[in-house]
Amino acid sequence: MATIKSQLRNDADGTCADSVTRAEGVMLQAFRGADFVEGVASHLDKRSPNFPSLPVRSSDVPV
């Protein structure tokens, strides 16, 4: 969700083409992440995913 919110905030005033280009880069980065790997592995293994806990949200972090 943080990635989606960041994209919306950063691309609100840009062109559609620029937004698509940035989105493709973010998506490729996400495909290399541990959450993606665990999600795919758990689906293939027909088990519940074992994602690490999320960090506690700080009031200093914009929503």
CA radius of gyration? 15 Å
**Helical region count?**
3
What is the first-to-last residue Cα distance? 10 Å
State the shape: flat
Binned, the helix content reads 55-70%
Outline the fold blueprint.
Blueprint: H1 2-11, H2 16-31, H3 34-44
Report what the structure shows:
The chain is mostly helical and 63 residues long. It is flat and about 40 Å long. The protein starts with a helix and ends in a 19-residue tail after the last helix. The model has no long low-confidence stretch (mean pLDDT 87).
Offer a concise description of the structure.
The protein is about 60% helix and about 0% strand. The protein has about 60 residues and is mainly alpha-helical. It is flat.
Comma- or semicolon-separated keywords:
63 residues, mainly alpha, 3 helices
